Amino acid sequence: MKNRLLATVAAKIAACLSVLGMINAMTAATTPERSGIEERYKWDLSKMYATPEEWDAHYRHLESMIGEFATKKGAGQSAEALSAALKLRDQVDVQLQKLSAYAALKRDEDMRVPAAQALFQRAQSWNSNGPSLFVVPTGIVADPEARLKEWLRQPELSVYRISSTCCCG
Length: 169
What we know:
The protein is an all-alpha fold. Helix content is 67%, strand content 0%. It folds into 2 domains: 1-31; 45-168, Butyryl-CoA Dehydrogenase, subunit A, domain 3. It has helices at 2-30, 52-70, 79-109, 114-127, 130-134, 138-141, 145-152, 165-168. Helix 2 (52-70) runs antiparallel to helix 3 and helix 3 (79-109) packs antiparallel against helix 4 (114-127). The longest helix is centred in the middle third of the chain and has 31 residues, at 79-109. It is elongated and about 75 Å long. 8% of the residues are buried. The model has no long low-confidence stretch (mean pLDDT 78).
């Protein structure tokens, strides 16, 4: 009985492996090499960054922006300080999105290129830190609700009213 069961399981495993092998062979045969695709069907990443060095320089600049944002912790003693911190947070987010989009598209050009995989991992390292980079530093939101409500009435902070409803009604 055991031998028969083992033979059945072995046959099913062999059949699955055979099917997977055929799928892999069909995919390899139907996926063209990027070099064989007409230029008009490829995205032009040089419009985002002309060279890898340009991307790297932007990455370093973004590191300094994130470092600057980290210094805003506890600096929120005025509407102006809150506005400056939120605007910097927004700028960091936009720049991070550009870096990440480029890295993802570069990786997707050919998933077999280790340098593109490394670039993508580098860009994703900030995304994995997510909330710590983009939450307003605690010293700013530690003020009483009345003060925050007053600040959010000011024109430069009006765009942030919706995101503040959880703490400021």
